[in-house]
Here is the input.
Amino acid sequence: MLSQQETNQAVSQATKPGMTVPKVRMNRQVTVKTLVTDSFRERAREEMSNELKLLDTQGQQLEAQYQYSMQQLEKVAQQGQAVDAQFMQVNQEAQQKRNQIATLKMQVAAQLGNLDKIENGQYINTGLLESQVEITIGDNLYDKLTNAEILVEDGIVKGINAG
Here is the structure.
């Protein structure tokens, strides 16, 4: 670990005229925070309702695929072939996917239910993005990699905290 004096020497050495400063680009997480407004609430409701419909459609497709697979296995079983392992595998996979869809539906429904409990004017986390940041000698690595956020109001970026 470098002392403060060693760091200062490295910075002054690297920043002499004609010298290139060593740097590295790193990925970091950027939090998107959205200001709750009536417009945001309306748009979020619409998006969540669409997501619930999509999950219902995925559930219906899953059931249709499941029924088809089961019919195919029954035909194979009628020909005298052992299909118990395949029946079990199809059932297990279908149940896993049903559980995933049900869990997602519960999460979206809970978010939809909580939407009206949030007061206008509050910021809520609405996503994570990834960006790159340039690190050079003398930078505080923790400051550069954390606390980056984008503040949004009705879809418009109102502020950026680069961390």
